Amino acid sequence: MSELTENYAYYFNVIGNNECQRIYAALNWFEKGAFAPHMRWIVMPEMGILTASRFNVILHVLSMEDSATYLPFRTHPSSSSQDESITIVHVNGNHYIKVVLNRDYPMPTLVPHWTHHVLPDARSWIIPYKRRLDMYEEYIERTRTRDYVDLNE
Q1: DSSP 123
Q2: What superkingdom does the record give (predicted)?
Q3: Where are the domains of the chain?
């Protein structure tokens, strides 16, 4: 919530006012001892954008439907944040689990919002990871068939 409220004007341009309002409402829920209702669940790409930027980390979100990499949008990488990443996998269509990927793994496609809305200070995030982003794209192209991507190759 802090990331969204402190940088509302920026996120208004990135995801729009309606999405900002919806994300704020989803995050603004603190009922103890109860499961969050569907309208309060994490939604991507909006919350991925906020997470990467707030914590100045790389966020990978993996799923059978689509996978994406989120880089911070506003800040340059610090020496301590280089190679710091969080990877979560969307499972059963209703929750995320954290996983650890081996070093030098192919990085899923960069979320398109980043290319269009990254601020100049954050552009350098992509430099050390371009090869790994390309590796993923090459893998997807190599394993793609007419109907599906073979993840078992």
Answers
A1: G
A2: Eukaryota
A3: 2-143
Which H or E element spans position 14?
helix 8-15
Using alpha carbons, list the distances in angstroms from residue 87 to 29, 41, 57, 98, 138.
24, 18, 10, 6, 20
pLDDT < 50 stretches in the chain: none
Q: For the packed helices 17-27 and 8-15, what is the interaxial angle rounded to 10 degrees? A: 120
Which candidate, 128, 10, 141, places its Cα nearest to that of 69?
A: 128
Closest CA to 62 of 44, 50, 39: 44
Q: Which DSSP string do the residues of 26-59 spell out, in sequence order?
A: HH----TTSPPPGGGS--TTHHHHHHHHHHT-EE
Q: What is the pTM for the complete model shown? A: 0.84
